[in-house]
Amino acid sequence: MEEIEGVDCCSKSESRSSSGTRPPNPNPPSHRQCKLVRHASLIKTNLSDVSEPGDVTEDYQSDFFPTLRSGACADIGFRSSMEDVYVCVDNFMHDYGLKNCTEGPSAFYGVFDGHGGKHAADFACQHLPKFILDDEDFPGDIERIVASAFLQTDNAFAEACSLDGALASGTTALATLVIGRLLVVANAGDCRAVLCRRGKAIEMSRDHKPSCNKERKRIEASGGYVYDGYLNGQLNVARALGDWHMEGMKSKDGGPLTSEPELMSTKLTSEDEFLIIGCDGIWDVFRSQNAVDFARRRLQEHNDPTLCSKDLVDEALKRKSGDNLSAVVICFQQQPPPNLVAPRSRVHRSFSAEGLKELQSFLDSLGN
C-alpha cells in the first residue's frame, strides 16, 4: 500500500468529539411481487469491455483532487421487507468529529445488504465508520485500518448477539473511502463498486460467491463445502458480517464464512468521472459497463448524483430485479461527464496489381 499524499495525522485527543452525525436510513416504499427476469443487456454486454481492478493505472497528475458530490437511493423492490442500508458522508472527518488532517477531501460511503433480518446491516452501518476513525493511525495505513474495522465490527456484533438473540442475522458490506486523491474500496460479499474512468468501467471489487474458484478453495480449507452454489448449502455469499447463529459457519478461531474484506485502491485522476456502489439487486440486471454507460448518460442529462442513483434503481425495477435495491453514485468532478469522440481511423487505400495494369493502359492510350 502506497502512502497517502497530503496526510498529516493529528492527535486523537485534540481532534475527536464525543458526538457524530449519520444520515437517516431510507424509508422503504410499498411491497411489490414479481419474478426475476434476466434483462437482455446481461447477454449483450461484452465482458472484455470491463477492466479488471489490476488494470487501474498509476497516475502522475499530482495536482488533481476530486470534488466530491454523492447521492443514493434505495427501494424495497419485490421483497416483503427491506434489509439494505447505505451511508453517504462527503465530509467524513468533519461529520464524525475529527479535524481535517489531510489535503483534499475525506469521505466515506457504504452499502450493506442484510439477510435473515436487518439488524446486522444496521449495526455495521453504525459501527464500521467509528472503528475506522477510532484507530490511532487513521488516516495513515488505511488498508490495515479498514480491514481491522471489518473484523472489529463483526466481533462487536457477535457480542451484541450473545446478549440479545433477536439480533441474529448477517450482512454483506462494501465500504468506500476517499482520502485526498486515494480511493479505497473494501468488500465482503456480493455488493459491487465500479469506477468510471473516461467512460470505461473498472471493477473495484470482486463478488464473493461460494462457487468462485478462490472462494471455494478458501471455504474447503476452512472445513466448509459448497453445495449447489451455496456455502454449506445455506448461504449464497462466501464473505459476510454476522451470521454467528448459523452452525458451522463461524467461530472465534475462524470458519468457512469470513468477514475479512478484499481491498482495492487507486489514485484518482482527472479522467475519473464517478463511482457506482450497489447491492447485488442492481448487478443482477446490470453488467458493470452497462451500468456505467447508463449512469453516464443520465449524468450528462442532469448532472445530479442523487437523481442518477434513483435512475439506476428505477431501471433495475423495470428490468424486474427480484431483490432489495440500493445504489450510491459518487461524482469526482463538478462538471458532467464529457462527450467522448472516437478518433477517426485513417483510411488506407491501395491498388491491386490488376488495377495498376488497367491504369497504366489508360495512361498509355492518352499518350497515343
From TrEMBL:
<keyword id="KW-0464">Manganese</keyword>
<dbReference type="GO" id="GO:0046872">
    <property type="term" value="F:metal ion binding"/>
</dbReference>
<dbReference type="GO" id="GO:0004722">
    <property type="term" value="F:protein serine/threonine phosphatase activity"/>
</dbReference>
<comment type="similarity">
    <text>Belongs to the PP2C family.</text>
</comment>
<keyword id="KW-0378">Hydrolase</keyword>
<dbReference type="GO" id="GO:0005634">
    <property type="term" value="C:nucleus"/>
</dbReference>
<dbReference type="InterPro" id="IPR000222">
    <property type="entry name" value="PP2C_BS"/>
</dbReference>
<dbReference type="InterPro" id="IPR001932">
    <property type="entry name" value="PPM-type_phosphatase-like_dom"/>
</dbReference>
<feature type="region of interest" description="Disordered">
    <location>
        <begin position="1"/>
        <end position="33"/>
    </location>
</feature>
<dbReference type="InterPro" id="IPR036457">
    <property type="entry name" value="PPM-type-like_dom_sf"/>
</dbReference>
<feature type="domain" description="PPM-type phosphatase">
    <location>
        <begin position="69"/>
        <end position="332"/>
    </location>
</feature>
<keyword id="KW-0479">Metal-binding</keyword>
<dbReference type="GO" id="GO:0005737">
    <property type="term" value="C:cytoplasm"/>
</dbReference>
<keyword id="KW-0904">Protein phosphatase</keyword>
<protein>
    <recommendedName>
        <fullName>protein-serine/threonine phosphatase</fullName>
        <ecNumber>3.1.3.16</ecNumber>
    </recommendedName>
</protein>
<dbReference type="InterPro" id="IPR015655">
    <property type="entry name" value="PP2C"/>
</dbReference>
<dbReference type="Pfam" id="PF00481">
    <property type="entry name" value="PP2C"/>
</dbReference>
<keyword id="KW-0460">Magnesium</keyword>
